[in-house]
Amino acid sequence: MVKLPLVPYRHCSQRIMATLSQTKEIFRRAEAVCFDVDSTVIKEEGIDELAKFCGVGDAVTEMTRKAMGGSMTFKTALTERLSIIRCSREQVNKLITDHPPQLTPGIRELVDRLHQRNIKVFLISGGFRCIVEHVATQLNIPLNHVYANRLKFYFNGEYAGFDESQPTAESGGKGKVISMLKEQHGFKNVVMIGDGATDLEACPPASAFIGFGGNVIRQQVKEKSLWYVTSFGELLKEMENI
């Protein structure tokens, strides 16, 4: 019996294995581009910044690293981190005012270019909607194109948990959002761009995934990405080929 050589596993290989050139082609033909936010669109991890602001930074940063590396479910990591932070509404508002999220270089230009070409842009984040909406406003992304987790507060402003019904609260949630967008809008080519394990697992249903390492490089994501970039300039350059 002749043994056939094993084909190395690549993410998105449920169908025919895509190549780098095919991934770039899908990006050039995209009808919608979905971005992760923390460590992708912005330089920091929003939940880590909130934890630092509330004085519990070290404990939460380590848990974020495990979550992004894929060693625990996202919902478990989110629940445990928030139970440590227990931020008030006032603290969240003060964080946004005193330490607004810092945009990653090149993202404003990339989003502008996508909009100029009538490509829809969405932000799909495991972070918090109140922070992500601030980012969306800076980038002229409609707030109804934002999918993120909602913090809950009691009437006196104290922390009351988070909305567990949001798809972004679960592992696999970003993929659920993309499936919903494809169904609602009839998109055929949807690209997901992000730095973490939850972004990688959104392809499929995303037509292609582009790994982003401009702020932090997660080795698992880099190894499984058919196209991995470290600056948004690389994507802007590719758009010149359209």
Automatic annotation (TrEMBL):
Q: Which UniProt keywords apply?
A: Amino-acid biosynthesis, Hydrolase, Magnesium, Metal-binding, Serine biosynthesis
Which E.C. number(s) belong to this protein? 3.1.3.3
For this chain, one GO molecular function annotation is: L-phosphoserine phosphatase activity
> Which lineage?
Eukaryota, Metazoa, Chordata, Craniata, Vertebrata
The similarity annotation says: Belongs to the HAD-like hydrolase superfamily. SerB family.
Which residues act catalytically here? D36, D38
- State the NCBIfam families in the record: HAD-SF-IB, serB
Write out the function statement from the record: Catalyzes the last irreversible step in the biosynthesis of L-serine from carbohydrates, the dephosphorylation of O-phospho-L-serine to L-serine. L-serine can then be used in protein synthesis, to produce other amino acids, in nucleotide metabolism or in glutathione synthesis, or can be racemized to D-serine, a neuromodulator. May also act on O-phospho-D-serine.
Which co-factors does it depend on?
Mg(2+)
Q: Which InterPro entries does the entry mention?
A: HAD-like_SerB (IPR050582), HAD-like_sf (IPR036412), HAD_sf (IPR023214), PSP (IPR004469)
What this protein catalyses is: O-phospho-L-serine + H2O = L-serine + phosphate; O-phospho-D-serine + H2O = D-serine + phosphate
Its protein name is: Phosphoserine phosphatase
| Gene Ontology, cellular component aspect | cytoplasm
The pathway entry for this protein reads as: Amino-acid biosynthesis; L-serine biosynthesis; L-serine from 3-phospho-D-glycerate: step 3/3
Which is an annotated Pfam family here?
Hydrolase
* Gene Ontology biological-process entries: L-serine biosynthetic process
